[in-house]
Amino acid sequence: MLKRILCFIPSTIVALAVCFATPVSAQTREAPYWATIKPDELNMRVGPSTEYKIDWVYRRAGLPIKVVRLAGGWRLIQDVDGAQGWVLSSFLSPRRSALVIGKGLAAIRATPNDGGTLKWNAEPGVVGYLGDCTSGWCEFDVGGREGWVREDRLWGTGEP
Fold first, then answer.
1. What is the pTM of this model?
2. Residues of the chain whose pLDDT is less than 70?
3. 82 and 140 within one domain
4. Short-list 122, 148, 119, 126, CA closest to 135
5. Which residues have C-beta within 8 Å of that of residue 114, sequence separation ≥ 6?
6. Is residue 21 a part of any domain in this protein?
7. Beta-carbon neighbour count of residue 132 at 10 Å?
8. Are residues 86 and 30 in the same domain?
9. How far apart are CA 64 and CA 97, in angstroms?
């Protein structure tokens, strides 16, 4: 992980430096970007403060979301259904996940092509962690079961 270093060097002859490292995370990036919900329960609010009412409660860790705007420690997010609201940035992870979308089962294959061995199928709504995407296919990990899924069957891939 990248680190931003802030150093304070006293103006005395003794070369003594006291440095503090601050991690640079996905929450300090410029919007838009993809992120993942960390807690099992997350309140989405109508504004960027705990003073605003709760509009929706997410009850599933690992869901992919799109961060569309920043306001201090708050992030305006958008979910797969297009709903938008505000959450605290500390409840978001930079680890990428994706959600199976579309109709019918999504094939998870051993290689990134339609001819690859079928490992298993995933129903719409299945969430997994995202690896590399190439030529319209993405590595997808659902509870340790890894394979390749067509990118058009996943929400949370590509440029946000």
1. 0.80
2. 1-28
3. no
4. 148
5. none
6. no
7. 9
8. yes
9. 5
Same domain, yes or no: 74 and 34? yes
Range of the domain at 150: 98-155
Kindly report the CATH number assigned to the domain that includes residue 145.
2.30.30.40
Number of domains in the chain: 2
SS3 at position 47: coil
DSSP per position, 103-158: SSPEEEESSSSTTSPEEEEE-TT-EEEEEEEETTEEEEEETTEEEEEEGGGEES-S
Question: Would you state the pLDDT for residue 29?
Answer: 79
Q: Which of 122, 108, 88, 87 is nearest to 150 (CA)?
A: 108
Q: For residue 69, what pLDDT is reported? A: 97
- 3-state secondary structure at position 89: helix
User: In the prediction, which pLDDT does 17 show?
Assistant: 34
Which domain-ending residue is among 74, 95, 116? 95
pLDDT given for residue 130 in this prediction: 97
